[in-house]
């Protein structure tokens, strides 16, 4: 039972590392995306600042637990979603090859992140079940194995209708 707990805990850590890789990739893409769209979207400073601020907050939450980090990542996803809605109003930008490449890269990263989050949460479920079910819960309690936190982006962040502002 102890070895099984160790194996599952290590699987959770590995799955978390995969989320971390995708989040860092997304953080790296955002400044390039903002710089690319800045020239086209001079009147959308608020939208661009919201993306930059959300990215900074998400990076600051990197050392926090899964719950805090998931909330920050949800805010970043919402800000990026609002940016993509505003981009629809700029046909020249949508034709820019650099923007298209960044958008494709970001979409790919978001897909990998979604898969990584699902794998992590599946791993957490298996681990938490093992730490809470008899007889392994006795060994878990004696050896300090604690339940892990799920990485759940809030439903509101995923389903929120983008708020588009055209104010300067």
Could you explain the architecture of this structure?
- This protein is an all-alpha fold and 168 residues long.
- The protein has one domain: de novo design (two linked rop proteins) (Up-down Bundle).
- 76% of the residues lie in helices and 0% in strands.
- It is built from seven helices and no strands.
- α2 (45-60) packs antiparallel against α3 (66-87).
- The longest helix is centred in the N-terminal third of the chain and has 37 residues, at 2-38.
- Residues 159-168 have low confidence and may be disordered.
Identify the notable features of this structure and list them briefly.
7 helices; 168 residues; mainly alpha; de novo design (two linked rop proteins)
Q: Give the C-level CATH assignment.
A: Mainly Alpha
CATH homologous superfamily assignment = LemA-like domain
Number of domains: 1
Work out the radius of gyration.
19 Å
Rounded mean pLDDT is 90
Report the portion of residues in β strands: under 5%
The name of the CATH architecture is Up-down Bundle
Instruction: Say how many strands there are.
Output: 0
N to C succession of SSEs:
HHHHHHH
Q: In whole angstroms, how far apart are the ends?
A: 61 Å
The description of the largest β-sheet is: none
